[in-house]
Amino acid sequence: MPSSKPLWQTFLAFLAPMMLSNILQSLFGTINSIYVGQMIGVDALAAASVFFPVMFFFISFVVGLGAGASVLIGQAWGAGEHHKMKAVAGTTLAVALFLAAIIAVFGGLFSRQLMVALATPPDILDQASAYARIMMLAMPATFIFILMTSMMRGVGDTVTPLWALALSTIVGLVVTPALIRGWLGLPQLGVASVACASAVSSVVTLLGLAVYLRRSNHPLAPDAEFLRSIRLNGELLRKVLRIGIPAALGMVVMSLAELVLLGLVNGFGSNATAAYGAVNQILSYVQFPAISISITVSIFGAQAIGAGKADRLGAIVRTGLLMNLVLTGGLVALAYLFSRVLMGFFIVDPAVLDLAQRLLHIVLWSSVLFGMATTFSGMMRASGTVFAPLAILIFAIVAIEVPSAIILGRVIGLDGVWAAYPITFCAMFILQMSYYMLVWRKRTVQRLI
What is the pLDDT of residues 205-226, one digit of tens each? Predict the structure, then answer.
């Protein structure tokens, strides 16, 4: 973390490529859905959607692994101990490859049985099984790609992951329609085209990334030392999992709560469901800065701890809070200003458009508080304090969000369900800030590696 520039400039230089990566990834998913829905049909889109909960579970775990590894790598990088950094990266990749191999074998043999267990409708069972089989067979490449981009952030590099994701996106967007239509003599694979394109883009990107990292002498280049480190180290793995598992659990808990709230929204009819989808599309983009700022705070904090500069942690948190106020707050202001135009991209029915705009106005402002809460938890994660922030998150969701949505939904209707979001974000902000100020700051921060 260079000290020659003001902290906010260094922070922004790290943050901007990561935000662009998040936006690019989201756009890629949206365009892929358009490909499938428009070029194949609704049944194909449904077949791909069936596998989403399974994929989310796998991705949650590997993202958690990446979060744990990036903190340890950040501390080792800050301390200038490159051999420890590569040892952490190697151990993380080893366990990910082991698990991905199990998933690939299971998927190759039992993807149809898995889809049956998920109550997949019979008319899309064959398509869903084919899609799931290819996605699970490609899991080793997917895991390595996600982990490498996450671990590169630990050494302060967010530009290379952005270019890698751009390459992956370009390959995917070219190969997907080629396989759907059978261009250039390729076989027409239906919905499996998306899965095959995803596998091809991951493999091509990993090969290109390996060549680039070697030629640029990147700290995480797959050189001889790095390759020798790809083995299970029990002590390092425990440290990675200690940070990574709570991060993954947090994602899973939030997704389960979202399913509960979606069920409540569905009870108000199809218009409410359509509005839910449109509002969440806007919220996902508005919250990109908040999520990226939390990761940045965590990485910068880990590097400062590794370098023995714990006195800088407060400044990093303050910078993160300021960035949330400016970036997330700025996007919130724009979304309020152009809310009807934004909703119009997804909805044409005037009644549903009015409903969606009203619901967006209820929840939008609280995204700033969500960002503030994740800034505090991001810094605590940098020091290895993960269970208290996780407990606060679970409490806010289980004891505040879900009960609020149920009670207010019965009392004031659909608006009450949506009011549960700002209530929860307010609670998360107050609780995370209180624990940070009253407990965490009074502790002595020590390196984990």
Answer: 999 999 999 999 999 999 999 9
| Domain parsing of the chain, residue ranges | 7-232, 244-442
User: Can you read off the two tokens belonging to residue 58?
Assistant: 């796998």
Q: Is the pLDDT of residue 184 over 80?
A: no
Please tell me the distance from the alpha carbon of residue 182 to that of residue 14, in angstroms, as a whole number: 41
Alpha-carbon distance 334 to 345, whole Å?
A: 15
Per the CB < 8 A criterion, the answer to whether 103 and 142 are in contact is no
Kindly report, residue by residue over 263-322, the tens digit of the pLDDT: 898 889 888 888 887 888 888 889 889 999 999 999 999 999 999 999 999 999 999 999
111: Cβ contacts below 8 Å, ≥ 6 apart: 129, 130, 132, 133, 136
The tokens describing 227, both together, are 């390759």
* d(C-alpha 87, C-alpha 237), whole Å: 10
Using CA atoms of 398, 399, 400, 405 in order, give the dihedral in degrees to the nearest 10. 60
360 Cβ neighbours under 8 A, 6+ residues apart: 279, 282, 283, 335, 339, 342, 343
Q: Extract long-range pairs of 383-387: CB within 8 Å, 24+ residues apart.
A: 383/301, 383/305, 383/440, 383/445, 383/446, 383/448, 384/71, 384/239, 384/242, 384/243, 384/448, 385/440, 385/443, 386/242, 386/243, 386/246, 386/247, 387/246
pTM: 0.88
Is residue 2 very low, low, confident or very high in pLDDT (cuts 50, 70, 90)? very low
Per-residue pLDDT at 377 exceeds 50: yes
Which long-range contacts (C-beta less than 8 Å, at least 24 apart) are formed by 1-6?
1/78, 1/156, 1/300, 1/303, 1/304, 1/307
**Cα(255)–Cα(57) distance, integer angstroms:** 10
What sign does the CA torsion over 276, 281, 283, 288 have? positive
Instruction: Find where tokens 């756009």 sit.
Output: 27
Residue 249, both tokens: 């659990």
DSSP letters spanning 229-251: T-S--HHHHHHHHHHHHHHHHHH
Residue pLDDT, tens place only, 94-104 = 999 999 999 99
